[in-house]
Amino acid sequence: MRAAVLALALCAALVSPAFGFYLPGVAPQDYARDDLINFKVNSIRSDKALPMEYYKLPYCQPDHIVSSAENLGEVLRGDRIFNSLYQIQMRLDERCKVVCRVVALTPPQVKTIHEAIEYEYRVNMILDNLPAAEVRQHLDETGAPIVDETTGQPRKYYERGFPVGVKVSESEDGPHRFYINNHARFTILYHRDADTDLARIVGFEVEPASVRHEYDRWDDASPRLKTCAGNADEPHPLGESPQIVSAGEEIVFTYDVVFKSSPVRWASRWDTYLQTQDREIHWFSVVNSAMILLFLSGMVAMIMIRTLRRDITQYNQLETVEETAEETGWKLVHGDVFRPPPAPGALSVCIGTGSQLLGMTFVTMIFAVLGFLSPANRGGLMTAMLMLFVFMGVINGYVTGRMLRGFALTDWQGHTLKTALAFPAAVFAVVFALNLLVWGRRSAAAVPFGTLVALLLLWGAINTPLVYVGSYFGFKTTPPETPVRTNKIPRQVPPQPWYMSPWFSALVGGVLPFGAVFIELFFILTSMWLHQTYYIFGILFLVYLILVLTCAEITIVLCYFQLCGEDYRWWWRSFFTSGSSALYVFMYSAFYFATKLDITRTVPTVMYFCYMGLLSLGFLMITGTVGFVSCLGFVRAIYGSVKID
Hints:
- With 645 residues, this protein is an alpha+beta fold.
- The protein has helices at residues 2-15, 72-76, 107-118, 271-274, 279-316, 321-325, 344-369, 380-391, 393-406, 412-441, 449-476, 502-509, 511-529, 537-564, 571-579, 581-596, 602-639; strands spanning 36-45, 82-89, 94-102, 122-127, 130-131, 133-137, 156-160, 162-163, 165-169, 176-180, 183-192, 199-209, 251-261.
- The two termini are 49 Å apart.
């Protein structure tokens, strides 16, 4: 009974969207009336170019700019969070509050603003750990707003940040004019406790505007603007003229603050940020993956239950020498099937690295499904993956050492050094090379030198020693005996049909694992490159499990066909059969770049394909390891079930 309840609870956790979960330690902040609250500013981002620090544009700056980086993942993501001059008092509405005045724009400042508007950069602000967002409405097929059945109000969702400005052309071929959004109307949603009269912030909405402010005489202590006259209840009781961006222009930055009571509780305040219109597509992804898995499971069941059982029964009944000499099929290669492959050390390194990445992704998924990776903790997911990769080095070393012992290789220290350095060195080299390009652009995406040193310390001082510890114990263990003895002279492999060639079978084997994940891959790429929040980890975990089972089953099926063709060279082929799905992942990323992204500059393009190449390499290691381990277990099982003299 207890097991059944636990199973139901796990299923409920997987299929639910996991709203309302927060990382322990992210506690709500209660505010009394008139409490001062300061805004923070984050990097301004674009889907077309590299992120920039907020103060690279001529915005209002405090006397002392203080960084607010909280974790390693936040820095690696390109978040550069600083203090600002924007300040509010809790539950106090304010109108046309002046932040500062930029007396005269210089030509370099004008050029920077023009580029930011041209490439559609969006300003990002933070209040009580909530990002500022513009309100959008869900629309049906006719373009009408979709009404929420429970509240009776139009269903809304948030688009993070607001545009730096707008570009306008009076005619189709006429010159463009650039206008900056120098005014913002902030709507702060709060939930009040009736007993204590304390309130918690549950929403941070913004509506930008471009206003050419006017005044009679400027007073730094108490500036009064003529353009702020009008009805305070209007969205923007401001002047009609927008603020153009040109050399010598003066810009006055202002903002409104409106507080609105909300029934939304603090634990659910991220729900609107995480809403998606594509929930049905996610479930279609699961159904699609499940159908592929059922198809493969049927093939594996047919092979295991019918064909293999018949073969094993037939082989075990062979008694005479003549009958034994006439045996065919997979039993014929029993004396060579466990012969070590070419480059066994390299295979051990690949399987060890894949085991490390597999352990990292699996534990990360568990934490995400349980709600420990809250979107409120910026960079938490990347930090968790990085630390788990470092500590999973012990698994890498153990698997590598055990395989080296099984292949009777004695230089376990040298191969352990290779497995500790190979994948991290490739990643670090690519990141460092790209960082040099980004440093030249002075982008917020540049990883600071101190962070690079921290990554090197994690790699050299923690990960590498753990790999050696795992390899030491893995190499000391006695490897399991093979079910059959290996002949001294290798058997000649007969000519194979074209469809059983290594490269063709590998390319075919990667289609189904890729087909199981490609729908969900679209949303992951959208989250990575279009700055949207992905938080349906329950569905992602289901797809992940289906991917692992699909890789295992397609590799077993093709390995069986290969052995029936009297080809015993299965070691590397089993790795690339399912691992070739990484090639399709990279090809799909190129298709996504061409059809969904609007990146035109060289450096962002190079960054995209380099990072997607690293992601595809990791995908190769994970899926290849799953295929290899599954095939190894399958081969040991079938050859351990027949009588070999």
